[in-house]
Amino acid sequence: MKLITSARVKTDARDTLHLARLLAAGLIPAVWIPPQDVRELRALVAHHKRLIRQRTQAKNRLRSTLHRYNIVPPDGGLFAAAQRSWWEGLALSAVEKLRIRQDLSVLASLEPLIGEVEEELTRLSGTEPWLSQVVFVLQVPGIGVINALVLLAAIGDITRFPTAKQLVGYAGLGASVHASGQTYQTGHITRQGRKEMRAALVESAWMAVEHHPYWKAQFERLSARIGKKKAIVAIARKLLVVVWHVLSKQEADRNADQAVLATSDIRSRKSPLRTIIRACLQGSMRGAYK
Q1: Which helix (H) or strand (E) holds 186?
Q2: Does residue 274 contact residue 263 with C-beta atoms inside 8 Å?
Q3: Which of 197, 199, 238, 243 has its CA nearest to residue 219?
């Protein structure tokens, strides 16, 4: 397409002919078009991310006000509803008080919106086509319901990725490679992939190394050699490889344990995820969704 648009002589008839020749030669790759349910989940995940970003921006503006005037915040939740009177009682100019009131109003309006979106994401996790995939992804240490749906929305159909390496490259977590002649060098991760996947995996990696002994040991071994920042990215990549295996083979993660049932997302006895995940961990439903 770049060659067509940059041609000195460009007409629709010539472009059509060029495309027809490329298609006949098999040089135009096929593109996977996500179905309606995947598109809707991706849109909801993106909407949730926008709301989270707006909340973070409002909190950062309020914190910067305290930094500018060297104000020591009180103990406890700085943005809790009980602290509203403290914010409004600060001895600041009328302009600063106006900004503080509006940022607090933004936070108050965003919290129920974020909660509503997260409730909808949790509801979707208990319905098809996501339920049969979520139950396996949730067994991977560090991954909660929200991050599980973020990954599934980005992946779409796991059969698109014949190998775990291809899925890692799709997320931009693969190492960049420069190979020419006798030279072979690897560098940082490419970051040429879905940004929301990388963010969700890094967040899940931090949870895994904090609460799961296997991943904690892996992190400590890697961080001693390459540092914490690179080590957590390596753990995120390993988690994605695990996700590929559990989704492709439709079986439980070998490092999964019953602690996953204690998470707040599936704590309710009425949750369909609770019963199915327990069955998966016991091996009675292995392969049930093939």
Answers
A1: strand 183-189
A2: no
A3: 238
CA angle 54, 52, 38 (to 5 degrees): 125
Closest CA to 273 of 79, 77, 132, 166: 132
Find tokens 């973020």 and name the residue.
150
* 131 contacts 288 by C-beta, under 8 angstroms: no
pLDDT band at 43, cuts 50/70/90?
very high
Cβ neighbours of residue 96 closer than 8 Å, sequence gap 6 or more: 65, 90
| pTM of this structure | 0.81
DSSP one-letter string for 147-185? HHHHHHHHH--GGG-SSHHHHHHHTT-SEEEEEETTEEE
By the 8 A CB rule, do 196 and 150 touch? yes
Q: pLDDT tens-digit profile of 194-231?
A: 999 999 999 999 999 999 999 999 999 999 999 999 99
Domain boundaries, the chain: 36-125, 131-282
> How high does pLDDT run on average in the chain?
87
